[in-house]
Every structure is written in C-alpha cells, then in structure tokens.
Amino acid sequence: MSVAHGIRTLGVLGSGQMGTGIALVSALRAKVPVLVHDRSPEQVKKGLALVDKLLAKDVSKGRLTTEDAKDAKDRISVVDELKGLRDVDMVVEAVSESLPLKQKIFASFASELKPEAILATNTSSISITKIAASAIPTGISAASEEGQKIASRVVGLHFFNPVPVMKLVELISALQTSEETLSCARAFAVACGKEVTTSKDVPGFVSNALLMPFINEAIMHLEKGIATREDIDTTLKLGMNHPMGPLQLADFIGLDTCLAIQKTLYEGTGDSKYRPSVLLERMVDAQWYGRKNGKGFYDYD
Ligand code: CAA
Question: Which family does the similarity line name (predicted)?
Fold first, then answer.
C-alpha cells in the first residue's frame, strides 16, 4: 500500500452525501481505515446504508470482489464523539456550508485531535484562510510561531458529488497552509483515485466561481419565463453535452447549498454577477432543497 501521503487513519466529519462519498473512496481506493463522526445517528445510518448499496452495486457489476467490498466496509467505523478522532492523521470536514459551524468545529480540533493532524475542509466556497484562523485556540496569537504552525495544517480539499464517480478534487491553499500539508493532501486525493487541480483561496475557488453564475443564470431564465425548466435543461444537456441540465444539477447539489455558495460569492466579491436570483431565495425559503428532500425544480420520490 502506498503511504506517500502518510495518512494511516482518516477521520471524516459529517456523513451526508459528501462525507459518505469521501469515507467510501478513502476506504476503497486509498485503503485507509476511516472513522466517521456525525452528530446525527440517523444521518450516519443513512450514510452507511449508501456505502453498502454502492459496494453491492460494484460487486454485482463484477468490478469488485465480495472480499474487497467487505474489506472496504470493514475499514469504515463510526465514532460517537469528536474525541474518537484523536488518533487520526488527517480529518476531512464535510458538514453543511456554514462558516460559523465550520469555525466552531475547527476551533474544537485543538483540544480533540493530535497536534500534528492535517485539518482538511471540503468547503465549496468559504475562505480556507478564515477557517484556518479559527483552528488557533483563543489565547494564542495568529501571528506567533505556534499560531502559524497550527494554521499551517489546514487545507481545502474539495470533492465533487457523487464522490465515487467524479474524478476531480480541487486543492486550495490558505494563506497559512504549509507545503508539507499541501503535498500530503494532494497525495491522499491521488490515492483516492482523483485528479487534482489547484486554486487560490478566492470565493468559490475555480469550480464554483464558474459553475454558480451558470446555474443562477439558468434559474433567472426560468424566472423570466424565457423557457420551461425542461427546455432549459434539455438545451444544455443535448446542445452542450452536459450530463445534466443546470436546473437538474442545482437540485442535485441542493438548492440550500447553491444559495449558500452564491451568497459567499456575492458577499466575498461584491460583484453583481453573483447575486442569487429571487426565485432561488424563495425556493429555499419554502424549504424546497432539491433531491435531498424530494422537491426542487423537479419532484423526486
Ligand atoms: N452516489 C454514487 N454513485 C452514483 C450516485 C450517487 N449519488 N448517483 C449516480 N451514481 C452512479 C451510478 O450508480 C452509476 O454508476 P455505474 O456506472 O457504476 O452503474 C453512475 O453514477 C451513472 O449513474 P446513472 O446511470 O444512474 O445516471 P447518469 O448516467 O445520469 O449519471 C451522474 C449520473 C453521474 C450524477 C451524472 O448525471 C453527472 O455526472 N451529473 C453531473 C454531476 C456533477 O456535475 N457533479 C458536480 C456537482 S458540483 C459539486 O459537487 C461541488 C460543489 O461544490 C457544489
């Protein structure tokens, strides 16, 4: 087994669609033991059921032996408390796209994890530099050697949904991230079977700074009645060979997540091209979040 990344055990925080996918590729491809923590036991149960389903599909398609599937599943365990992650070499945080929530979590790492652990965030748009600053405990100056050392272990490791299928990981360096942290995170993503691109720490990085205006423009086309949702999606799907139309993709990502990313882009740049459409705001007000809860631009079972 390649250990160029030096990660002997991984922690994953959050067992939604992203956290579960990250746990699966880490156990199956990088072959590392993975400890998953989520504050919701129901969410963990759902995540583990998805892991079972995806592994069983790979076995039924002849891409994986029953034994390899079992080994991968056995590498994944659940811990009830954050302190259960105290021995991991790297943690990947994959909770909701909320800065205060991420700051709270990163602030707790200093007392819960070992001091040399790499602290990766799967955020899709939030400043990695801000998240890194929140990992420094109160009382330690961010400018001190100790403060800089703590923040140097924070890195952006942005996976794409569905994680087992999408080939990319976007690697983002905070102002404070060390070269050692970056190269370890990159090697780990490669061990998970991913191609890695790098982006500066700007709102939305490369991926969402380009994707979100596209999705938002599609929503505004719908809002203005320029075309039906089906015609907008079919135009992009068949006319540009996209796997999904932009409204389907927004539902797939989650409308609440799209709105959170768009707000980060708009607030972080002040550029009106990133202003979320009123229709998207209203759909999230209505708690229509897309596929994850059954209603978005389309209805799902
Ligand atoms: N988890 C794991 N695997 C999944 C899955 C999921 N949620 N959904 C679909 N798949 C797998 C299927 O099991 C199937 O695998 P096999 O080939 O091994 O059987 C494969 O994907 C293809 O699925 P389907 O045949 O059912 O359907 P499809 O051909 O329409 O593909 C899709 C589905 C892969 C999701 C495809 O539509 C697609 O690529 N869509 C675009 C996805 C995309 O753009 N993702 C990035 C979103 S942005 C993001 O994630 C980052 C962010 O910051 C917001």
Answer: Belongs to the 3-hydroxyacyl-CoA dehydrogenase family.
